[in-house]
Amino acid sequence: RCVCSPAWFFWGFCTSATCVVSFIMITGRCDDQWCHTCAEQLENLRFVQHAQDAPLVSHYNYIVVGGGTSGCPLAATLSEHSRVLLLERGGLPYRNMSNQEHFTDALADTSLASPAQRFVSTDGVVNARARVLGGGSCLNAGFYTRASNEYVRTAGWDAGLVNSSYRWVERALVFRPDVPPWQAALRDALLEAGVTPDNGFTFDHVTGTKIGGTIFDNSGQRHTAADFLRHARPRGLTVVLYATVSRILFRSQEGVPYPVAYGVVFADPLGVQHRVYLRDGGKNEVILSAGTLGSPQLLMLSGVGPQAHLEAHGIQVLVDQPMVGQGVADNPMNSVFIPSPVPVGLSLVQVVGITKSGSFIEGVSGSEFGIPVSDGARRLASFGLFSPQTGQLGTLPPGQRTPEALQRAAEAMRRLDRRAFRGGFILEKILGPVSTGHIELRSTDPRANPAVTFNYFQEAEDLERCVRGIQTIERVIQSRAFSNFTYANTTVESIFTDSANFPVNLLPRHVNDSRSPEQYCRETVMTIWHYHGGCHVGAVVDDNYRVFGVRGLRVIDSSTFRYSPGTNPQATVMMLGRYMGIKIQAERWRK
After folding, report:
1. Known binding-site residue numbers for FAD
2. What would the pLDDT profile of 490-524 be if each residue is shown by its tens digit?
3. Which SUPFAM superfamilies match (predicted)?
4. How many CA atoms, within 13 angstroms, populate the side-chain half-sphere of residue 80?
5. What is the pTM of this model?
């Protein structure tokens, strides 16, 4: 018997040097079958180590900061011909995270070791950022769909290389879902509601209703961006976990008019500082793939950002770059819970209706959302997306929604008949969005969340798209195709009224007899974790994702997007990692 976490053995990441550390950091013991898996996979995955085992000084061709949805495919690709270091501030995806039945577990975990670091935007919307190898692909609902052809053209990407990069991603971890009755009814209801044509199963972003791909296989197991590391050249890649990067190192170089990035500093969990330097050579680079919050935050901590803001935090200004942290957006999402008179199987997003009015309609189902998955579950289910509370907290002002109030509500929910949770959510997310906000530092601590403002529905166009999406959902609920999953004596108005009382955010409610669709959009706004921006192409980085005003530094992740690609961005973020990895390799060997 070994003393490692099952997750470490499943991934094949345990070695004699990390056994004790892994046992401390991730609880649990492996049984014989996990040990057997470890033995089979250990040989090719020795490149993963804990930050405490990392050398104090090391040298690489590429330093990739952020082992998430873009960082993993990027690092795997670059490792084919170079020495690459991938630094991830979190750990490995643990076993429960890998099954769709445990979808809400990580998001409900607010501990310091949680793979989902919770934050609340200044708008009052609860959100989360990934803190785990594989990034958001370890936490999301798994839906896979490409960006539109128009999006690719607008981005100026090479369409042929984009397609081949998508296919590389799809071969590694994308599946065709088995569509259960509830999702099939949603598909037929969308068609009946006028979201046509029926596009069948496709990865393409096309107007109408379709079944998309998923990163959950047919047994319900999640596959994540971390899977791409299996395609890395083992001698070309080192992955360091629990490594929190605090700053990028810059120096002056003769003949170069800009500061040149030459390394990074990261801390392990004990606070020991490690320095990683680029090897000699003009084509070696530091690449930020730390996400929409992490990449602009790290730029600012390193002295690249708005001068007045950096000086207010005592940070020496290297480059006055006022656009760092600007243009951040989150696609607002609104949902409605539809109680079902019949049992409903668990399903995450599989069907999407792409409307002509700029809203996307999706759905999730199953009574598992909002109640403990097992009798031994200690964490409370998330009081946000996909948690069908019955309104116990909706009457409380936001300031009174304390942990104690949440505990009391959760206990009351546990005493309810499980049939009260039977049903599913239909949700709408808008295209774009047009409304944008910004990211600012709260402190110089790289572990702390920055302050984030999204300005949901600040622009009238976004609100109009939401209203049209809500109207589409109303037609879906009233359709014949969906009638088996709605109570005959329940009105659409009552369904929306009940959902409006769910404590999904910290915004005040305006109690009245009837709510307009506009009011519903504003008061029940949530995140679907598709936030982006802060390092826009053309403002902070160039078309090749090089940071303006410095050398040897790129940003390759969702922070470079002006708009969210497609209905769900993860496919395009993964593709971008592969796409840019290939392009950077080509540049390296070009004379």
Report:
1. 69-70, 132, 245, 529-530, 569-570
2. 999 999 988 888 878 888 877 765 679 999 999 99
3. FAD-linked reductases, C-terminal domain, FAD/NAD(P)-binding domain
4. 16
5. 0.89
